[in-house]
Amino acid sequence: MRVLLIFSLFVVGERVRAHSDFLRFYSSRDCRGQSRLLQGHLDRHRNLNKIIENNEIRSVRLTGVWLLYQLKNYNEYIGMVYVVHGNNITKNLPSDFPTKLSSIRRVRRSSLPMLTLYERDDYAGKELTVSDNRIQLHELPHGKANSLIMTGDMPWTIVTKDHGKTNSACVYPDVTFDPDTDGQVKNLGFYPNTESMGLSGSVVAVIAGCTE
Hints:
Shape: globular
Distance between the termini: 38 Å
Number of domains: 2
Order of helices and strands: EEEEEHEEEEEEEEEE
Strand content: over 45%
Radius of gyration: 17 Å
């Protein structure tokens, strides 16, 4: 059985003027070669073969939180994902990560705490971003999620169901980085599966805040 590896990277970049999230990827290491900028509404692509020759991406420059997938449609099958975030950083992709990427998307952020839920493990499949309680996840297939990314400093209560049994746990952001020149710290939490949340089964509801 193929093992899916997750590479989660935190890099503190140099201070620059605050600006919106962006990602420019390059076909060669050290930000050289053919490049393409993703910014604004162009913050996700299901099939990179349509915009860059041979899908070859070996380095990136970015601000924000981005997910780089080995396969198209955000890993429509089991594949690797590279999670990278920071402020105006440049980074070569790891040597053991495929150079041929097939899809990419940005994790949305705002001044409010947010939770982005993903259909499958390792941030794969369809996504749903929420900022308040959701007792049902109708927007996702079968109303279930299996991984999530938090932005903001608020904890969330995660409710799962496993073979008819309901469980819940409080999850917190576990990573911080400073993307702004005003010194405002941004908090993030990465949970690639329900086991990383201390739960089992699939997520069926989320509640802002915790009572535990």
